[in-house]
Design a protein that fits this description.
A hairpin with a 2-residue loop joins strand 6 and strand 7. The strands form 3 sheets. Strands 1-2-3-4-5-8-12-13 form an 8-stranded parallel barrel, surrounded by 10 helices. Strands 7-6-9 form a 3-stranded mixed β-sheet, with no helix packed on it. A two-stranded antiparallel sheet has the order 10-11. Helix content is 46%, strand content 16%. The chain has 12 helices and 13 strands. The protein is α/β, with parallel strands linked by helices and 333 residues long. The structure holds 1,3-dihydroxyacetonephosphate. Residues 30, 94, 154, 190-191, 234-237, 277-281 line the site of 1,3-dihydroxyacetonephosphate.
Length: 333
């Protein structure tokens, strides 16, 4: 049994309370490899932004859960080495699907876990969430739950149909489950193809898809029911079109990739939404940079020569999100 406090990590409680009060959101960035983690920590150290490092089931399979946890521990030391005196780093399990998995993460030094019972019947979702909360809270580990279903594909999480969170359920759910934060569904979805072309209009000048707006009316109703309660948005990548263009111009094929426009995320960050999940944008930044280097220098075979530029591109992306979209810069001096 390792407690996250001994690793220099923090849970989400104070982060979220400050974010709700201050009208900004904490970045929740997924990581699967060293370059992503280095880029996240560098961006956060340079902007003094609190951060949630997320480990998904795909990341656990790809990189190994044990290794990822040690990497997060190393991240705290790395942050200090970069001159960030008091790093606010949370290690979070993304989309935990069983009590056993959440328990193993709590026991292993995670400071926050998500139990995603959103595909279960309502009462079963409450019961499972409550069981995780009762265990996690003994160790001061915070718990995110989910109500409502997001469409899209994220590693092993696949849902064909979305349905918005029902505002009339949130008080009962939060009270009875005891969760610390709630992921809701208001139209975001996982992956780089968030909206089908038939859900969008097309910009006549550029030919690009223009996605439908998020359901801010549902968010406002939820906020009214649960004032000050931390709300989480999954599936919040914007799918920057400049990366899609670089990928497509260098041998890729990502037609009609589209995300959530950043102005909508900016608006959400000012509300009770205090955690915004971003994974796909980092994958796009990485892939765009790698494709560009390999297209320009076909003889290159040293991974450092293309993973290095990919890492630099991710630092730029993360800083942009922190400063221009979430507003979390300077909140962890
Ligand atoms: P994106 O696919 O939009 O980056 O969402 C990631 C996410 O929500 C992780 O839980």
């Amino acid at each position: 049994m390792v407690n996250y406090k001994d690793l220099g990590l923090v849970n989400t409680r104070e982060m979220f309370a400050k974010a709700v009060d201050g009208g900004y959101a904490i970045p929740a960035f997924n990581f699967n490899n060293m370059e992503q983690l280095q880029a996240i920590i560098k961006a956060c150290a340079e902007t003094k932004s609190p951060v949630i490092l997320q480990v998904s089931s795909g990341a656990r399979k790809y990189a190994n859960q044990t290794l990822l946890r040690y990497m997060a521990e190393g991240a705290v030391a790395y942050a200090k080495e970069l001159g960030w005196e008091h790093p606010q780093i949370c290690l979070h399990l993304d989309h935990g699907d069983t009590f056993e998995l959440c328990k193993s993460c709590v026991d292993f030094g995670f400071s926050s876990v998500m139990i995603d019972g959103s595909s279960l019947p309502y009462e079963e979702n409450i019961a499972l969430t409550k069981k995780v909360v009762e265990y996690a809270h003994q160790f001061d580990v915070t718990v995110e739950a989910e109500l409502g279903v997001l469409a899209g594909v994220e590693d092993d999480v696949v849902a064909e149909e979305s349905h918005y969170t029902k505002p009339e359920e949130v008080i009962d759910f939060a009270t009875r489950s005891g969760c610390d934060s709630l992921a809701i569904s208001i139209g975001t979805s996982h992956g780089a193809y968030k909206f089908k072309p038939e859900q969008c209009t097309r910009d006549p000048q550029t030919g690009r898809l223009v996605p439908p707006p998020l359901a801010f009316d549902v968010l406002a109703e939820i906020e009214k029911k649960l004032p000050g309660f931390p709300i989480v948005l999954h599936g919040s990548s914007s799918v920057p079109q400049e990366y899609v263009d670089i990928i497509n111009a260098n041998g890729g094929n990502m037609p009609d990739a589209v995300g959530v426009p950043e102005d909508q995320l900016r608006k959400a960050a000012k509300s009770a939404v205090c955690k915004i999940n971003i994974d796909s944008d980092s994958r796009l930044a990485f892939t765009a940079a790698v494709r560009k280097v390999l297209a320009e220098k076909p003889g290159e075979f040293d991974p450092r020569k293309y993973c290095g530029p990919a890492r630099d591109e991710m630092v730029k992306l993360y800083k942009h999100k922190i400063i221009e979209v979430l507003g979390s810069d300077g909140k962890a001096e």
